[in-house]
Fold these 2 entries.
Entry 1:
Amino acid sequence: MSTTLPAARQSEGFDGRTDSAPGARVEFRGLRRAFGSTVALDGLDLTIEPGELVALLGPSGCGKTTALRVVAGFEQPDSGEVLVDGEDITRVPANRRDAGMVFQSYSLFPNLSARDNVAFGLRVRGVGAARRRERAAELLDLVGLPDHGDRYPHQMSGGQQQRVALARALALRPRVLLLDEPLSALDAKVRASLRDEIRRLQLSLGITTVFVTHDQEEALSMADRVAVLNAGRLEQCAAPAELYERPATPFVAEFVGTMNRLPGRITDSGLVEVAGARLPVDGPVPTATREVEVLVRPENVTATADPEGTATVVAASFFGAVTRLHLDLPGGTSVKADLPSRDAGELAPGARAAVGLTERPVLVVARSA
Amino acid sequence: MAAMTPTPAPATPDATPDTASGTTAPAAAAPAGPSVKARAPRRRPRPRVWRAAVFLLAGAYFLVPLVASFVFTVHVPGQGVSFEAYTQLLAADGFTESMLLSLGLAAATIALSLLLAVPALVAVRLGSPRLRPVVEVMCMLPLVVPPIALVTGITTVLRWGPEHLSRTPLYQTFLAVQDERFPVVLVLAYTVLALPFVYRSLDAGMRAVDVPTLVEAARSCGASWPYVVLRVLLPNLRASLAGAAFLTLALVLGEFTIASLLGFRPFAVWIVTISGAHARMSVAVSVLSLLITWLLLLVLSRAGTNPATVSSAPSTSPTSRKES
């Protein structure tokens, strides 16, 4: 197990690579980390391919930030290892890992201008003043702040500070870029804009990127693959569309997007009977019981205005192109249905509606008592 | 549920609310009408008179003794105004020596207290935040220990050891720290006295900056630990370091009890010593020492000003802070 990277390798990080060089392969192997009785990582295995952007997504305390900090070298795992291009870096100090990081809080050095912040790592590596200045200008230009070199952090907005932090992280041409919820402190509009900018940069530089977020929208819209973590374990790592359409576990199904739980029954033919309809089952079928709960996405529930319908619209939430209806069904079941807003005009709260399901495979879980 | 029937699968909506809510939700805030402004409560008139009175009273409290002292030093009954007390100062026996000794003690105390406190507080902040209350209590203890008790303790310790230990390094050390030319024992005692002020100043500075994130940001940029402390933390703690030095300087220049009882003669002790024989000169020295202290504090406060917060960088208009 290596402990440090050779000094020559360190200098190669800046001088030897070009901006378009492919990123490194990052592997988590059986990572385990506990804080007292709290297990943050419980045998995490994950491989991130070169040039890939993988989002670590999960609820608070699932271990996503701990996993990122283990890669950065700010946390030591109790067991397991982290490999970058096949090289074990688990015990390599944080300052020798060749990984750029952008933090959630604005982490710029308050006493340095934007230019000096970007050039900080170059100065640490002993790069000459002229080359530092040139590289800082190049990166500030890359993040869209060519005229902000002389400004200090307190003279910039949050979005501008995070752009400078991104430029600083990229200045040394790291093998891996680590993003620890870099957008969560920004307002919605800036967040959306910077999200696109980060993705554009990541694609153009081809740098392997690990992105921690609790925001599904960010994860699904930016990442090549999304790794959903739960209680320190990997539930599923898949492309956003696959994660949404074909969740591997009930946890992923319910965590990513919105899910209805409807009572159903497994028939002899292996179909699930739910609300009078018979639908194919996707994934494992509980063997202990036939009484199940069927997981259905709101967009797979249809609702039409019908004075004779058995459902009642309780609330309607307008989201632009889509309107989400909250409906009460006989028997005390509630269901959410997403309709194109142009079709939801007659379904105001209090209206009666006929509700149906689209015919597609569904996930089922054993019904809890 | 009887009404629910399977229907052919329609195309999935372009954007589900889960993934579109952040960007497609309409702006719903209604603009506030002019009536809101009309209904705003009237501001109460500011109590300018009272503020001026309090300001004048406080100013008088500080200035009257100073002016009285100054008048006493320059007004000689029967002779009118004379600056003789000030002109004789430099030639006065012990003035320069005691002043230089006090400044040297102050510099050493500042250096020692910062060398002790900065690494300790950084370590607590980064490594063991739970120890912070313990460190705080320990640092605050000198506030509740009277100087006379401290002197008694120091004297007792310095008298330890029977004669047969006189050739040991311990005994020699005890003698060395009591060297009249530069009594290190005073530096040690003053460091203890200054600890509460140094701690408070540094703690406030460390609360003002996100120390763990700055350290991690610097480490991820390749900085070693010494580089992080010297080039990242200290520059960002500049104001609080200056504040700590500021308070320590004031404390050392004015400290009398410990130095006097231990038999040393720094500036404060020298002033008291000459006050019996040269009353006018001793008051002149006090006024002068006050001015010197103010001057040094001014220098320290200027040194603690962060260049990032002064107008050396181009100013930013409110509009330029908005995202483009």
Entry 2:
Amino acid sequence: MDFAVDPADARFRDDLRALLDGTLPDWWRGMFVDDPRAIPFTREFCRALAAREWLTLAWPAEHGGAGASAWTQAVLREEMWAAEEPRGPQYMNLNYIGPLLMRYGTPTQRARFLPPMARGEVIWCQGFSEPDAGSDLASLRTRARLVEDHFLVDGTKIWTSYADAPADWCLLLARSELAADRHDGISVFLVDMTTPGISVRPIDTMAGPHEFNEVTFESVAVPRDCLLGEAGRGWELVAAGLTFERVGIARYARAARVLEHLVTHANESGQSRDPRVRARLAELRASCEAARLLAYRAVSLQARGVVPTVEASIARIHATRLEQEVGHAGLELLGPLGLLRSGDPVAPLAGEVQRHFVRNIPTTVAAGTLEIQKNIVARRGLGLPRET
Amino acid sequence: MDLTWSDEQEMLADAAAAFVRRECPPERVRAIEASDGGHDQPLWDAMAELGWCGLALPVEHGGSGRGVLEVTVLAEQLGRGAVPSPLLDSTALAALPIAWAGSDAQRARLLPALAAGRSIGTLAVLEPGMTDAWGDVSVPGGTRISGQKLLVPWAHVADVLLVASSSGLYLLEAARTAWDSVSHDAFAGEPLFAVTLLDACTEPLGSPERPAGPETTHRVLDTAAVVRLAYAVGAAEACLDLAVRHASQRVQFGRPIGTFQAVAHRCVDMRVEIDACRYLAFQAAWSLEREDRAAPLEVTAALTYARGALRRVFLDAHQVHGASGFSTESDLHLFTRRLTEFEITFASSRRHPDLLATAMGLS
């Protein structure tokens, strides 16, 4: 066990902060805002990272990466998430769509799809959930039928982030064959979003527009060479992808950043001497520390080549709850003015806490609900019996 | 950065786990607790034989020269078995402080026996009216010391007693002076005593010119708190084991209750909190061992987090067990008492969250 931070990683963190300080515009509040400058800025930012070889920092050199350690990558995602993820939609490429292609893609697929990701030029979205298939993802109904040299895809995907960015490609889950076991027969497709038959309908949310979309596929022709991995074996591929994704976001880093704002507010408003306020903020700080260590445990296993399925879910359960708790504590601290959003000139902390609170209402739903995460830990981690 | 155990740490943990399973199953814990004095000499001798009394003590005084982190690795395994033993207290509350702050003569006189397990040490801090072990004590130091100390663990078998006084740590040796120990009636995991000192003969820890001051007491308390936290994490892990076993075997409505998500998810909540406490403890131990500047705050963060978290864990275990967990026929109470004791004695201090708040920048 070694808790020492590599000095090179500490320097990298300083360099990243300097870049962020110099690059993030004043108006930057993340990608899910009603501001037409946001998504173009994320593209520009990714190109700037790519120019420094920091975009695909953790990818192996053979795929255009810098082969950095899992720990350097952890620094990157902490700083990115704390700054509201200026890589925008492309963080998904780097965290798990790229790695899935490396692991399951053919040489042709890798040569075709990885370089544009490494240059920061392509936005992907993921087509997983459906109107009737959320937590029970294996019940998905989108069909892919093999017709001569291509698959014909029909179905509807929902809660698809970034589809209206617009996304260039979609990592799509569809049922390609009917099988005895419901987890069999699902395949993963790489779908060009400009293909005829795809329509994108944005869904408005409490956090503002551009968060979600519904994407329909009507007789969409997907070439055979855009099938990722073996036909019908997509479930295990997605399970691996979701594990990468669960440790891929340093939620505790954002929670810690918001907590820093709350300290400022408590000092300015004179609440910092209230023992209850002090105790509450201290507890949340300790919880950020715990969340960081739980994530680091999963990273330690990853660094040893183990896929930390259970540990990633434990880290996510803890971190998502923490993000929500920080928002709740923030609203309590701000009082009635906590209702005011960033557009209001007297909003405390520029509406930051209000936004953090609302944005995190669905945090325990996205990428596998809290309950699904707990099922994973209960069965795979604790060995509790399955329902018969 | 690497949060997995080294091979050496893994070997120590495995050896300790095997020892606890073999030598100290729940029946023996119950027997020891029911015995007069609650101290099992053969068990103590067996642990001394393994070199655990001197694990973190200097090699020149008969120890193995390992660090606080190793002691926490061992502590976690002892906690898993609710092992009733003065081992951890003797190490963290007496032997380590003597190694850190004792004079050369004190180290040479006391450490070899402590490292070999020929003597047992403990520390007296709390006094009537104190609500926090880190708070101000009022017993005055001096070559003669008088006053009352409460909740002193293992005072009845201790050969060396450190006393926290208003002017620092003082040393009492059973071979030279006497103290009066009266057993408390406590909901705890180990024997606790009210100690009365009447003009007892003492010397300051360290040289008379440079006695160990309150900063040493704080370091001792920080270290002891982290070692106890690791023991508590082990005890919490045992609570989870028992809960999972019960949930897998207990059948209601025609199926094991662990198939109900309301029960299963409670067990998962326990898993998350235990793991969180565990790595907070290891991180703090790692920093304490290096005398890192971050250590006191990491201790503070660990205790601030653990205080509510571990209570939720054992209460969840009780909920999963239903009425059977309240019965002392179940082993659960062995762990509940230890976790309660840890929380109340080390994690309940309001000082920790407040220190952390100040460190966060709250004015």
